[in-house]
Amino acid sequence: MSAIDRDPDIGFCRDCLTYQEERLHRCAHCGSPRILRHDELYALTVAHIDCDAFYATVEKRDNPELADKPVIIGGGRRGVVSTACYLARIHGVRSAMPMFKALKACPQAVVIKPDMEKYSRVGKQVRRMMEELTPLVQPISIDEAFLELAGTQVLHRNPPARTLAAFARRIEDEIGITVSVGLSYCKFLAKVASDLEKPRGFSVIGEAEAIDFLKDMPVTTIWGVGKAFAATLERDGITRIGQLQEMEEGDLMRRYGAIGQRLYRLSRGEDARQVHTRDSAKSVSAETTFNNDHADRETLVAVLRSLSEKVSRRLKKSDIAGQTVVLKLKSADFKIRTRNRRLDDPTCLADRIFHTGLSLLEKELDGTKYRLLGIGVSDLSSADLADPPDLVDTKATQRAVAERAIDKVRDKFGRDAVETGYTFGRQRSARPQRDRDATGPKSGQTGD
């Protein structure tokens, strides 16, 4: 890097990329107010890139008449909101909101059925452009990813911050959508930063400011703290991250178990996780094709449990987890049914995969005979943030502890050393024609 790239007093314009040596409110070259300055701007290399209201933005790109209208992507009145543009969000529309509530909040909204094939195509374009910046791209979903840009300065002849600004501008010019960028020294704060100034945001959180920056933020900012756990923390008088910063690690672990250690570290901006690639794998799954078709619950549930354990073993072995559980069924007339459910947190536990798959399977037990049954997970991520203790459903937590104990026994004495009541003496009656494990090339599907 040149001397100018190492001077924290020198910022640059996000629109024309011109360096700004004087502290003006607008770019000296193009007049843009989007000037980026930060004391650690040229030292940070971990980024989180998130497409803004992705589905809705793609639809507006393809239909200019929607530009100034609130747009909701989702099903009919009985469906739910997949995403909404920022105009709709101003009226209170949120992802996963029932459609009738969304339309009550914003009756003038234009509702569009999701076109996942199109969104996937655009997402792949963005991904390819990310991979031109650095080989270390860790996809989180179709429209977001972590990037590690350490060592790319020579290649791009720019520090990472300026490379990312050029990337965001290129996405707008060539693909016609917008992204928000978070830049920091760790993944946790890069993700926090990308959410700060949407849309078209570019936020920076440095290491020197991390503790002060986090102290006034709600505990839900921390990964793994969902509504249920946040309610538990609130009952204990904890609502802000600063309160966690004042507590001892041992005290947090005594209160909340393993997640207490995560609370302690992330509240202080300590996150040692690295950005890593996952090659082409989008899902981990297993499926069985039967010699004889089956419609009875007992047989299908036993096979589902066995396959869930198989998927769980592969996830644990690879130290990854999935946040969406996908059930696959093929009927006797070769028609395929796929059903999926997104979890609050990623999982690698057989128990959670099985019970989620079971709730999906129950709705398909309508007398149809099936020749194939499969279960898997997609939306893969590192296992280090998977399966936080469930402080609401204590039985789920007890089952998780029991499962890990069973894993240890099986590791020592073999897979058949312990069987659950669901599978004991039953799954063999299904007489599978073939049993397949797969890390699938497509999310929610198995590979050959």
Automatic annotation (TrEMBL):
Magnesium found in the keyword field: yes
Cofactor note: Binds 2 magnesium ions per subunit.
Protein name, as recorded: DNA polymerase IV
EC id: 2.7.7.7
Enzyme class: transferase
Transmembrane domains' residue ranges: none
InterPro entries: DNA/RNA_pol_sf (IPR043502), DNA_pol_Y-fam_lit_finger_sf (IPR036775), DNA_pol_Y-fam_little_finger (IPR017961), DNA_polymerase-Y (IPR050116), DNApol_IV (IPR022880), Rev_trsase/Diguanyl_cyclase (IPR043128), UmuC (IPR001126)
Gene: dinB
Site positions (Substrate discrimination): Y55
GO MF assignments: DNA-directed DNA polymerase activity
Record's subcellular location: Cytoplasm
Classification via Pfam families: IMS, IMS_C
Chain intervals for the UniProt region annotation (Disordered): 420-448
Residues covered by the UmuC domain: 46-226
Active site residues per record: E144
Chain residues that bind Mg(2+): D50, D143
Keywords noted in UniProt: Cytoplasm, DNA damage, DNA repair, DNA replication, DNA-binding, DNA-directed DNA polymerase, Magnesium, Metal-binding, Mutator protein, Nucleotidyltransferase, Transferase
Family named by the database record: Belongs to the DNA polymerase type-Y family.
Known catalytic reactions: DNA(n) + a 2'-deoxyribonucleoside 5'-triphosphate = DNA(n+1) + diphosphate
The protein's assembly and partners: Monomer.
Known role: Poorly processive, error-prone DNA polymerase involved in untargeted mutagenesis. Copies undamaged DNA at stalled replication forks, which arise in vivo from mismatched or misaligned primer ends. These misaligned primers can be extended by PolIV. Exhibits no 3'-5' exonuclease (proofreading) activity. May be involved in translesional synthesis, in conjunction with the beta clamp from PolIII.
